Amino acid sequence: MTERQRHRIGVIPGDGIGPEVVAEALAVADAAGAELELIHYDLGGDRYLKTGEVLPDSVVEEWNSLDAILLGAVGHPEVAPGILERGLLLKARFELDLYVNLRPVKLIPGAPTPLRDSGPDEIDMVVVRENTEGIYAGAGGVLRQGTPNEVATQESLNTRMGAERCIRYAFGVASRRRKHLTMVHKTNVLTHAGGLWMRTFEEVGEEFPDVERAYNHVDATCLYLVDSPQRYDVIVTENLFGDIVTDLGAAIAGNLGFAASGNINPERDAPSIFEPVHGSAPDIAGKGLANPIATVLSAAMMFDFLGDTSVGDAMERAVAEALPDLGIDPTGAMSKSTSEAGRLIAAKAAEIVTGGAQ
Ligand code: NAD
Ligand code: IPM
Ligand code: MN
Questions:
Q1: How far apart (Å, rounded) are the C-alpha atoms in residues 22 and 263?
Q2: N or C: lower Cβ tally within 10 Å for the chain?
Q3: Is-contact 288 334, C-beta < 8 A?
């Protein structure tokens, strides 16, 4: 047997259901044979409420020594919207230049979908979301706040460099899959940003003659994701549209409890962050109702990215094999608790690893 890779992983459980699902993902990783050195960070709402700190620069500095980061979710009912989301999550994505947000939309056999006639063969795509620009950049401001003449601007920043590097990455992903890439935007209205994206898409596409190109407006994409998801292999899109279509993607492929993601720095000059698509779900936090699969699959993506594909594959297989035992109903709710589900998936992972070693 080859020697196991050892990974130095930062862990940010965060808020709400974050700590519940991260604990299970780590248990499954352990059962799948991962060799980990874990560095825990107590970032999130509780730390902010106690100390006023969100993401100190010294912590970001420290992350240079990590191989990757596993994050649960942030967002706290007692903290004003934006403080943690912008101050922690977006700051991390921007400072580490995690310019690709990779979000698979894949229906695992046995997972529920509200789409009557769609099965696993039809829902298997990857969304490549630009992760550092667009309306998320934070440009804009408020004037005359609280008066009847209040003005708010929130500008979308789009650079040629930013669009190009994301689009080139997406062509690379498509060339390793079914060789079909759809750009999603709103070029009929957002003519400035859309024009830049479209010209870039067409120019970079010339470098990938074997990848077929398509374009859909984002509103039509929402329709097609529901009525003909099989048309998509890889989607590339800007930041906000990517955020929105991937929640819809989650809805058709098992729900948010299944949707994994990676915030990737493709050049690997900073650690990439892997996290479920979902948030801190304060409505179910502390009740043992959270489905840990999205975080387990995000951790599996992390191991694949780190080249430890035997661990990543074992975790993915374990999810698929444990699924029938989790009692998942058509809405995505489980009859097992978060920790029971984690234990069942970990047991499958252990079986797979032992079987594989024979
Ligand atoms: P959410 O994703 O937390 O929840 C949306 C719905 O999905 C809720 O009904 C929730 O109960 C359900 N859900 C989410 N994850 C689930 C899981 N694993 N298992 C079962 N059900 C699950 O989105 P929201 O309610 O809009 O936001 C809550 C907070 O999370 C906000 O503060 C928001 O800013 C934050 N947020 C953070 C992230 C992140 O950390 N990446 C992502 C999205 C939202
Ligand atoms: C996500 C979340 C984040 C986003 C928020 C919490 C900043 O919704 O990861 O999808 O909009 O990117
Ligand atoms: Mn989102």
A1: 16
A2: C
A3: no
| Residue 45 three-state SS | helix
Q: What are the Cα distances from residue 346, in Å, to 3, 11, 227, 260, 337?
A: 22, 19, 35, 18, 14
pTM of the model: 0.97
Q: Residues lining ligand 3 (ion), CB within 5 A?
A: 243
277/255 Cα distance (integer angstroms): 10
- Whether 313 is a known active-site residue: answer no
By three-state DSSP, how is residue 44 classified?
Answer: coil
* 136 catalytic per annotation: yes
Closest residue by CA, ligand 1 atom 5: 281
- Written as tens digits, the pLDDT of the chain (358 aa) is 456 789 999 999 999 999 999 999 999 999 999 999 999 999 999 999 999 999 999 999 999 999 999 999 999 999 999 999 999 999 999 999 999 999 999 999 989 999 977 777 789 999 999 999 999 999 999 999 999 999 999 999 999 999 999 999 999 999 999 999 999 999 999 999 999 999 999 999 999 999 999 999 999 999 999 999 999 999 999 999 999 999 999 999 999 999 999 999 999 999 999 999 999 999 999 999 999 999 999 999 999 999 999 999 999 999 999 999 999 998 888 999 999 999 999 999 999 999 865 5
Nearest ligand 2 atom, CA 275: 9
Catalytic residue, from 219, 227, 283, 287: name it.
Answer: 219
Give, in degrees to the nearest 5, the angle at Cα 47 between 46 and 51.
Answer: 125
Q: What amino acid is encoded at 93 in this protein? A: R
What is the DSSP annotation of 68-96? EEEEEE---TTS-TTHHIIIIIIHHHHHT
Residue type, 317: R
Note the helical H segments in 176-235: 191-205, 218-227
The DSSP string of 257-287 is: GG-EEEEE-TT-SS-EEEEESS---TTTTTT
Query: 159 and 197 in contact (C-beta within 8 Å)?
Result: no
Which parts of 88-199 are beta strand (E)? 100-106, 124-130, 140-143, 151-154, 180-185
Q: How far is CA 46 from CA 50, 61, 224, 280, 312, in A?
A: 6, 22, 40, 13, 31
